[in-house]
Amino acid sequence: DGGITQSPKYLFRKEGQNVTLSCEQNLNHDAMYWYRQDPGQGLRLIYYSQIVNDFQKGDIAEGYSVSREKKESFPLTVTSAQKNPTAFYLCASSFASGVYNEQFFGPGTRLTVL
Amino acid sequence: AQKITQTQPGMFVQEKEAVTLDCTYDTSDPSYGLFWYKQPSSGEMIFLIYQGSYDQQNATEGRYSLNFQKARKSANLVISASQLGDSAMYFCAMREFLNSGSSNTGKLIFGQGTTLQVKP
Predict the structure, then answer these.
(1) Whether the predicted pLDDT of B96 surpasses 90
(2) How far apart are CA B13 and CA A23, in angstroms?
């Protein structure tokens, strides 16, 4: 089955620690995205990547880092510089080109800082 | 400035009735796409329906239809014959093709969402 997987589903972190959230897709999509969602709020874009070895900052990139070494994978690292990292993180992917560009989402990772 | 506005934080609807969720948007880009997503309590985002700015007809997908009024910059989602499983949060999102700096970024801008509860 094609889709997007994210792991772990729940993640607990102590203050001052870096953590990495995994995102893998087997949809052969070129573009991948990371969003952050706070309770009762919409999604905000953290980083996105249209091709391997290239990525751009979104609206709230401070305190986060990403890599795109493989087409299928787009891991997100939440660094200790992120002041308020407790949130729900969603990864998405899509075909990069085309007028119609539906994004497919993974099941999300809920990060809690203790 | 808010690019996507969803003015209804919460809505109730009786099972089997129709409901309209409001969405207004703001863009100067002549080419854009509008999306609706459903987010159940599990957290996953489920794509429902898409409307392109040049589409002449309103989009429909099963029980979902989009009331697209371009001059008013509104893209309301209509759910007909509501079911208990429709209870969820609903997000309106927009993708601009030119203002994003590249026609292929695929970047989506989301509204704050509307929580819909279907009563039995």
Answers:
(1) no
(2) 36
